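Sequence in, structure out.
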Amino acid sequence: MSETLGTQVTTHVLDLVTGFPAPRVNVRLADMQGVELCVSSTNSDGRIEHWGSDVLLTVGTYRMTFDVADYRRSLNEQKEPEFFPQIDIVFHLRGDRERVHIPVLLSAYGYTTYRGS
C-alpha cells in the first residue's frame, strides 16, 4: 500500500448514441451513508478531472450518480422517458492508488463502466 493521503477520482462519459463525448452530465459523488461530497458536470470532452475542491478520497466505498435523463433532455433527443434515467456506480478504494479513473459508455438501453487507467 502506498503512502498516499487520498485518491483522486476522475471520470469520462462517452455517448455511443451520438458518437461523441457527453458534455454537461451532472455527476454526484457521495459516501455510502449518502453524504454528498461534491457535485460536478462533465466538460466539453465528457470528463471530470477535478471536482472543484480536488477531493481526495480515503479508503472506503463510494457512489457516483450520473444524471442521464437531464443529459438526454439537454440534447433535445428525448422523445420518451430514459430507460436508465440515472446510473449509480458504487466502487471501493483500497488506498493503494493515487488516482482512479472510472469511464462510462452510454447507449440508448445500456451502459458499461470499468476501472480505467
